[in-house]
Known about the structure:
The protein is about 15% helix and about 45% strand. It is mostly beta strands. It has 2 domains: about 1-65, no CATH class; about 80-150, CATH 2.40.50.100. It has a 4-stranded antiparallel sheet, with helices on one face. Strands 5-12-10-7 form a 4-stranded antiparallel sheet, with no helix packed on it. Strands 9-8-6-11 form a 4-stranded antiparallel sheet, with no helix packed on it. A hairpin with a 2-residue loop joins strand 2 and strand 3 (about 45-50). The longest helix has 20 residues, at about 1-20. It is elongated and about 60 Å long.
Amino acid sequence: MGSDVSDLKQRISDLAGLMEEFHLAEAEWESEGERVSFRRRSNLVVAGTYSTESGESAHEEHVFPVDPEPVPAWPSGVPLTSPMTGIFYLSQSPNAPPFVQIGQTVSPGQVVGLIEAMKVFNEITAPTGGVVLSIVAESGQIVQPGDPLMYVG
Length: 153
């Protein structure tokens, strides 16, 4: 029984860690009649555990405080956002120079990065011309549709 509790604690800790790492609002894990779900409420993480093995619905909820993250101040300008889920790269290869740098002027249609999705590298182009004000996505970072990659103004 003690091993089961420590295993459950480890799974809960792992799930909470993944939530923090990937900035998820909700996460859930289910296996062998046990379900653990998390949802974020402001600066709290709520962990709920459910058991359905006996057919009865048991529910237990724990609230864990989470240090609030500072809200980043984004520069003005036009955000260049990710059109898809994938891994963002600032250069063609690890040893190649970046496509763009902060302060560089870009033209509409100019390649500013790559997103690897399903082993295919997709060129990301500037929708508008201007100066690169900020690059907010790191090379090698997983991005989702709508995530800002950089700002051009």
